[in-house]
Amino acid sequence: MTATTTARSASAASMSLSRGHVEILQFLRDRTSVIFTFLFPAMLLLLFGTIFGDSYEGTGVTASQVYTASMLAYGALTTGFVTMGAGLAMDREDGTLKRLRGTPLPMVSYLAGKLLLVFVLAVAEAALLLLVGWLVFDMPMPDASHWLTFAWVFVLSVTVCTLLGIAVSGIVKHARNAGAILNVPVVFLQFISGVFITPITVLPSWLITVASLFPIKWMAQGFRYVFLPDSMKQFEAAGSWELGRIAMVLGAWCVIGLVLCLTTFRWSDKDR
């Protein structure tokens, strides 16, 4: 690698970090976004965990603890899919993307800044949900080996949700409607993927089959493996954790999301 290439890489990384800092500050200044994107999953966890607190027979695990693990998938989906999709739609509509084409800021650095925002929010969201689960619902923390599984499930989950958020932003006609449009599939998938309704086996088999086509079901299942004892695998659709399949499905959706991004991304509304 030449000195020029190294300098360019360092400059791009610096601009990415700077853009990420700006994105985080802008997000924190919008109280509505903070409440509905960051705090809303925690409020739902408190609601569901309080209402449905019974134990699963023969396991010693409460429904509240199952909700804590499953809601980690919801947190990743809202921070990745909704935040990225709505943010890009807004930047496209107000001309931010168009103006950036005439500045020294590379588009890679702009997207990297958005990704930094998403990952910071996703980590904070996961920490908040786990804190609520630990303090309110006595959620036990896993051993070191399970934390390694958490790391790759978390990274794949946030990546696939972010890529799909970028892709869907290209078909949002008006930024003011982005939140409503993006939350429709989010809410629908929560109900059929074993996040809002547990265990997933209470759902009709055809609904579970539909849910299996999308990543959220596998995200929630992976997080349940991390935080719940092995006795809980009997309540999964296949009666096992299926870690290998979780990795394959999420990896496949990362590829699908990338392809969709390349085919749907637009710099401005005139590019339709």
UniProtKB/TrEMBL annotation:
Transmembrane stretches, start-end: 34-52, 72-90, 111-137, 149-168, 180-200, 206-227, 247-267
Signal found in the keyword field: no
Alphabetic keyword roster: Antibiotic resistance, Cell membrane, Membrane, Transmembrane, Transmembrane helix, Transport
Any one Gene Ontology cellular component term annotated for this protein: ATP-binding cassette (ABC) transporter complex
Subcellular locations according to the entry: Cell membrane; Membrane
First-listed, main subcellular location of the protein, grouped into a coarse class: membrane
Name the record gives this protein: Transport permease protein
Lineage, broadest ranks: Bacteria, Bacillati, Actinomycetota, Actinomycetes, Micromonosporales
